[in-house]
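Please fill in the sequence for the structure shown.

STRUCTURE ENCODING:
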């Protein structure tokens, strides 16, 4: 082997030795047409599970709503009305998609979206210190390092400031705190609003006054920790920029344009659609609490129908809200190895969900909780799905409700996708008429374990999988032979998998789906070393005469039965599938709808 050839293979092997077993994305985002008919059985199974669950006594005082949406429409919903309601004030006695809940901290996503809109309009910069927009914080009365805390830090839970200023104080919940070992305290200087004063709304002055007494939990941008104060401050930023009250800002920017007619930051005038949990004797219903200056962190009232509208908007706009911002991307690590903070998302990525693949599934989520109200939204970018779960009543039912819709349903979606990919992309491909003189063929197959992959690629009578990709993986595995032993009696421990770029050769017409082929290790060995899980993305690994060696472009005809043509630009050939194609599909790569 010549020096240049060795260098070339070494460069490719460097990326191959990253332990990447299952590239993401593995398929184009499904569109779920015809009301997601392919998921009908999964939805029926979900309904049976919930029908069984609600027979338990813990559901007697609990109402809830679950909704699943695609990027274009609601696919399925389930609603349950508590058997026991307050006879003096029952609220909505027949929970439906239009029933209204308090969604608590999901409000933070609306506050952040409004901030992103202001960045897009040029009215602020995420990387400006918060002192630019709240001048009072420049005062020497504050000990928190405001000059080092940016709007991005606040939105990403990276400011390092405390969690609360008027909530979660043990002082308010024990008549005698010394009974649990705490020393006596006078309560001098504590707030005179919210939990400290029968839920009287706190105002801007209350917030800024209490912040003068606050000390940092961490240095700015050192480590994420959850803080409601971050979003209360972002609410003040929005008010200072727009000269409007926070509630009016959210109505003008989000509720009205999206036609979220059941959503508000003030209590609805009537209880007729209100989900009102049956509270313990003597406890007020949190439905009536005005959160005041804390509205930007947890004040919204909304319905599952309106939330579906909101989730559809996010699924179709998350990467087009402001220059340089993909709203779904993590910003910092959580404490768990699979958990991350976004702006302000709580992101969870797991390899445990798919039974036949190590491909991680990522949930972009936001949860919320207030007395009697528990809420969660989940966005799954790769599946084009959004899920909302609102509970009014007993929070102990939450796990029983969210597990089926986030595990069983996603496994069913995965199965449906691969059935579709099988019919749309797989088969044997031979040269089109212009290249009929070439001895070139290509075979594509699918499986949940290997995704869409090359089973065979002959170019000009040469076995490319053996000659090129085989050389790459040989260099990779020979440099670390103990990491990748070839199982006796089994095939090679790698395969050539296709990953969609979600781009098109012709973006104007959304035609010509661009994929990249990656040599991927198939198996994780037993007793793998620590670094086995190290995997960074490196897709554009090598070119030939200025063109990407691993690029494949799929061209679909306009009519049913038209040939599917695969173009390989670096190989200067186009191939058509033998036998045509089985109609349009839900996974044909398209732009946002």
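FILLED IN BY: designer on duty
SEQUENCE:
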């Amino acid at each position: 082997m010549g020096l240049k050839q060795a260098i070339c293979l070494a460069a490719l092997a460097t990326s191959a030795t990253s332990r990447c077993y299952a590239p993401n994305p593995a398929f184009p985002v499904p569109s779920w047409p015809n009301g997601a008919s392919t998921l009908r059985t999964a939805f029926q199974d979900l309904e049976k599970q919930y029908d069984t669950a609600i027979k338990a006594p813990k559901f007697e005082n609990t109402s809830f709503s679950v909704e699943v949406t695609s990027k274009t429409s609601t696919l399925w919903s389930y609603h349950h009305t508590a058997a026991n309601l307050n006879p003096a004030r029952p609220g909505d006695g027949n929970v439906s998609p239009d029933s209204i809940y308090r969604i608590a901290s999901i409000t933070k996503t609306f506050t952040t979206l409004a901030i992103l809109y202001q960045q897009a309009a040029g009215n602020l910069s995420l990387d400006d210190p918060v002192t630019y927009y709240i001048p009072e914080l420049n005062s020497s009365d504050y000990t928190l390092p405001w000059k080092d805390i940016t709007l991005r830090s606040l939105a990403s839970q990276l400011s390092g400031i405390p969690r609360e200023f008027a909530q979660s104080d043990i002082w308010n919940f024990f008549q005698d705190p010394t009974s649990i070992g705490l020393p006596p305290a006078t309560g001098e200087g504590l707030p005179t609003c919210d939990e400290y004063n029968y839920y009287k709304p706190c105002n801007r002055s209350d917030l800024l006054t209490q912040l003068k007494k606050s000390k940092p939990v961490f240095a700015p941008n050192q480590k994420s920790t959850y803080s409601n104060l971050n979003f209360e401050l972002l609410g003040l930023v929005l008010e200072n920029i727009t000269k409007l009250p926070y509630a009016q800002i959210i109505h003008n920017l989000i509720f009205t344009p999206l036609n979220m007619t059941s959503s508000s930051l003030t209590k609805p005038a009537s209880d007729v659609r209100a989900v009102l949990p049956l509270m313990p004797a003597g406890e007020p219903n949190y439905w009536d609490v005005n959160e005041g200056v804390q509205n930007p962190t947890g004040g919204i009232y909304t319905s599952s129908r309106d939330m579906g509208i909101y989730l559809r908007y996010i699924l179709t706009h998350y990467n087009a809200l402001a220059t340089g911002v993909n709203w779904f991307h993590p910003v910092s690590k959580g404490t768990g190895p699979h958990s991350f903070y976004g702006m302000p998302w709580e992101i969870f990525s797991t390899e445990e969900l798919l039974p036949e693949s190590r491909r991680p599934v990522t949930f972009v989520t936001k949860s919320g909780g207030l007395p009697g109200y528990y809420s969660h939204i989940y966005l799954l970018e790769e599946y084009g799905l959004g899920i909302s779960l609102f509970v009014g009543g007993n929070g102990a039912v939450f796990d029983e409700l969210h597990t089926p819709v986030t595990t069983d349903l996603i496994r069913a979606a995965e199965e449906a996708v691969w059935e579709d990919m099988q019919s749309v992309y797989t088969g044997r491909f031979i040269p089109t008429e212009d290249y009929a003189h070439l001895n070139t063929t290509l075979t594509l197959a699918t499986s949940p374990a290997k995704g869409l992959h090359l089973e065979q690629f002959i170019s000009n009578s040469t076995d490319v999988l053996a000659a090129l990709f085989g050389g790459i993986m040989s260099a990779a595995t020979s440099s670390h032979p103990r990491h990748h032993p070839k199982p006796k009696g089994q095939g090679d421990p790698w395969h050539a998998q296709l990953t969609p770029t979600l781009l098109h050769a012709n973006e104007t017409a959304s035609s010509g789906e661009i994929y990249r082929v990656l040599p991927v290790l198939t198996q994780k060995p037993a007793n793998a070393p620590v670094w086995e899980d190290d995997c960074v993305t490196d897709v554009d690994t090598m070119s030939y005469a200025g063109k990407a060696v691993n690029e494949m472009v799929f061209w679909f005809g306009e009519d049913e039965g038209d040939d599917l043509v695969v173009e390989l630009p670096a190989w200067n050939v186009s191939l058509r599938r033998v036998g045509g194609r089985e109609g349009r599909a839900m996974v044909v790569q398209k732009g946002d709808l």
